[in-house]
Write a structure and sequence with these properties.
With 182 residues, this protein is an all-alpha fold. It has two domains: 80 residues, no CATH class; 80 residues, Arc Repressor Mutant, subunit A (Orthogonal Bundle), CATH 1.10.10. It contains eight helices and no strands. It is elongated.
């Protein structure tokens, strides 16, 4: 901690200035978040890094701390914009759902049926369905899904599952409607 604290604090200060912030309490919060993420998963971020040059660790910690600080500010910025309070255009305009709700329910049930058809005979079908639903229904990011226990994928693996399933479902709908497989 004594060795890397100045590096982490400098990264937090630099990023907070880039975001137009800089209150000491806020910087302390960012530094604490950096420590939490560095120590997560038994400090995997730090233990997986191997380089023969001793100074390489300082550069690595600096880059990781900077990225974590940017993530914190992005998250706060999204919360300020009200990302948790978005509504549909129809709701904002006060238009009754009516047939749109029926169409939406039919579409969702068709997608669910295709999702089941694409995954039911696969070894990891249940996990893939969970990943798909968490992403498209719950709005979780690939990174957030990868950190959930039992998923067993990194964020690139989650993105791969989502890409494969989305492509397969789109192709199935395209074939049902008489379109090509593009």
């Amino acid at each position: 901690m004594r060795r890397y604290h100045p590096v982490l604090t400098a990264a937090a200060i630099r990023v907070s200035r880039q975001w137009g912030q800089g209150a000491p309490d806020e910087i302390d919060d960012i530094v604490q978040e950096i420590y939490l993420r560095l120590c997560a998963n038994q400090s995997r971020i730090l233990t997986d890094f191997h380089d023969a040059r001793p100074e390489a660790m300082f550069g690595y910690v600096k880059v990781v701390a900077t990225n974590i600080a940017h993530d914190c500010f992005r998250y706060r910025s999204a919360a300020k914009r009200g990302s948790d309070r978005t509504v549909s255009v129809a709701e904002a305009a006060g238009i009754a759902g009516g047939f749109a709700d029926i169409d939406k329910q039919l579409s969702l049930s068709e997608i669910e049926a295709q999702l089941l058809a694409q995954t039911e005979n696969r070894e990891n079908g249940k996990r893939d369905r969970i990943v798909f639903r968490l992403y498209y229904r719950m709005g979780l990011t690939a990174h957030a899904i990868s950190e959930l226990p039992g998923i067993g994928l990194n964020s690139k693996g989650v993105e791969g599952v989502l890409h494969r399933l989305t492509k397969a479902i789109r192709q199935a709908f395209g074939q049902a409607q008489g379109f090509g497989t593009d």
